[in-house]
């Protein structure tokens, strides 16, 4: 598959030029947005990389890509251009309207909480992925692909269900630089992505860890429960390399981690002592990062803490 740098605007009829007003050839036309990709402000996609699921999930694991999938309604709330009419009837544009959008989802309360955790100003960039898998972003000063600069990014209040409508979650955002879309857009046609379906890329799933019991002095096991936050079902399939245990800030390597049928994991460690502080979290030990990959799904947990009792 071609690298990112070779597929940008590949189907263009004319980009950033008045020569592009002809209609011959293929047209860059977006369909309804299926998901939005959120990146840290200023983050650029490496043009030497192949844009596929492996690269996208690597960015997610590194904390450089947040995927909000499953847009149900996509509303354009952009402001109009402000036009002044002079005394002689001549008009001039005084202020260019800015692009502003709102998206709604039906992904549940945990997703609603995640949306509101993104509330910020000037911290993120956003790219669009439409239902066909086309990607719309903009050009960084280096020429690489990046997301559109975002000012306000705000989770919306929960839309409560009624007899005729269901619960919905939402997020709103405004672009701060209109030229990033009007002039400097980058369009990646889905046909250039091979088997990769960016519209189907999932976000990171949160696993809630809790201690099954507080460790006691001389204990040689740490037992944690693991459940998916979204539906509280037990999380299964964890291996010894999927956890990070620390005692008083020092990493301890269990001799084994055993998964039990009820979704608990028992880690065997050296004997613990009273008042030692124990922490546990999901962790990709092989790659030293807090997101783990199981098959095609990504998982992450918060760090949980307890103190050994006598």
SSE diagram, text form:
Layout: E1 33-40, H1 53-61, E2 66-69, E3 73-76, E4 82-85, E5 91-95, E6 100-105, H2 109-116, E7 120-121, E8 124-130, E9 135-139, E10 145-146, E11 148-155, E12 169-175, H3 179-182, E13 185-188, E14 205-211, E15 221-228, E16 243-247, E17 250-252, E18 256-259, E19 264-268, E20 277-282, E21 292-294, E22 297-301, E23 304-307
Parallel strand pairs: 14-22
Antiparallel strand pairs: 1-2, 1-8, 3-6, 4-5, 6-12, 7-11, 8-9, 8-11, 9-10, 9-13, 11-12, 14-15, 15-19, 16-17, 16-20, 18-19, 20-23, 21-22
Task: Offer a quick outline of the entry.
This protein has 310 residues and is mainly beta. It is 7% helix and 37% strand.
User: Roughly what is the average pLDDT, rounded to an integer?
Assistant: 93
Terminus-to-terminus distance: 59 Å
Q: What is the H-and-E element order?
A: EHEEEEEHEEEEEEHEEEEEEEEEEE
Largest sheet: 11 strands, antiparallel
In total, the number of domains comes to: 2
- The SS-based structural class is mainly beta
Tally of DSSP helical segments: 3
């Amino acid at each position: 598959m071609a690298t990112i740098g070779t597929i940008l605007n590949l189907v263009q009829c004319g980009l950033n030029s008045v020569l592009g007003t002809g209609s011959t050839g293929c047209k860059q036309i977006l369909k309804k947005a299926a998901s939005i990709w959120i990146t840290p402000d200023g983050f650029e996609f490496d043009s030497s990389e192949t844009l596929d699921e492996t690269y996208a999930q690597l960015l997610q694991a590194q904390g450089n890509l947040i995927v909000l999938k499953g847009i149900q309604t996509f509303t354009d709330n952009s402001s109009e251009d402000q036009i002044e009419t002079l005394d002689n009837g001549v008009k001039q544009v005084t202020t260019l309207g800015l692009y502003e959008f709102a998206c709604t989802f039906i992904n549940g309360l945990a997703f609603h909480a995640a949306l509101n955790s993104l509330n910020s100003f000037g911290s993120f960039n956003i790219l669009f992925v439409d239902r066909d898998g086309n990607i719309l972003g903009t050009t960084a000063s280096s020429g690489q692909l990046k997301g559109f600069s975002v000012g306000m990014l705000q989770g919306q209040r929960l839309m409560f269900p009624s007899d005729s409508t269901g619960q919905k979650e939402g997020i709103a955002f405004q672009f701060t630089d209109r030229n990033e879309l009007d002039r400097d857009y980058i369009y990646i046609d889905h046909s250039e992505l091979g088997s990769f379906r960016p519209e189907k890329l999932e976000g990171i799933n949160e696993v809630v860890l809790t201690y099954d019991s507080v460790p006691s002095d001389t204990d040689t096991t740490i037992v944690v429960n693991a459940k998916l936050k979204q539906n509280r079902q037990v999380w299964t399939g964890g291996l010894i390399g999927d956890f990070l245990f620390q005692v008083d800030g020092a990493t301890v390597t269990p001799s084994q981690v055993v998964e039990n049928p009820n979704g608990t994991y028992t880690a065997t460690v050296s004997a613990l002592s009273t008042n030692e502080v124990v922490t546990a979290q999901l962790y990709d030990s092989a790659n030293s990062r807090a997101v783990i990959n199981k098959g095609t799904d990504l998982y992450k947990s918060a760090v949980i803490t307890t103190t050994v009792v006598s």
